[in-house]
Amino acid sequence: IYVFEYYITGGILKMSKTAFARDILRKDSILRKLLAKERNFQNNPGINKDENGNACIDFSYYKGDALAEDPAELVKELKQRYGGEIGGELHYKGVYITFRQEFYFNERLD
Fold first, then answer.
1. What is the dihedral sign for C-alpha 50, 72, 22, 81?
2. Phi and psi at residue 53, in whole multiples of 5°?
3. DSSP string, 23-76
4. What is the pLDDT of residues 35-56, one digit of tens each?
5. How many CB atoms lie within 10 A of CB 110?
6. Which residues is 98 bridged to in the sheet?
7. What's the CA gap between 45 and 36, in Å, rounded?
8. Exposure pattern of 28-58 as b/e (b: 16+ CB <10 Å)?
9. Distance between CA atoms of residues 11 and 93, nearest Å
10. How far apart are CA 9 and CA 30, in angstroms?
């Protein structure tokens, strides 16, 4: 059996305030999937506002749990839902558990 685990390793995700609020309140929220499952305040990414009033999620010092889904698919779904209301870049790694190999990826949201 081939098993991949995905971890966010850095990046900044920018969203309009309305897109952020709409997604975080959805039952099938993509943002909640990208944020930590374990609610340890030291591990959560910083959420701030930029100079334009957009919500910025900073994953620079993030040490989160393994994601249940491929981040590339989650980002693709975010783009489909909110289009031009999102931007930034997300860095993540995929760990191929069977042979203990790591692969690093960058996903542009602009």
1. positive
2. 85, 10
3. HHTSTT-HHHHHS-SS--TTTSPEEEE-TTS-EEEE-TT---PPBSS-HHHHHH
4. 755 555 556 677 888 888 899 9
5. 9
6. none
7. 8
8. eebbeebbbeeeeeeebbeeeeeeeebbbbb
9. 12
10. 17
- In single-letter form, the type of residue at position 96 comes to Y
Q: Which two tokens stand for residue 16?
A: 């309009």
Q: Judge if pTM exceeds 0.85.
A: no
- The residues that bridge with 15 in the sheet, in sequence order, are 55, 86
Residue keyed to tokens 């990046």: 11
* E strand or H helix at 98: none
Residues facing 87 on adjacent strands: 14
Retrieve residue 30's tokens.
């993509």
Termini Cα distance of the chain: 35
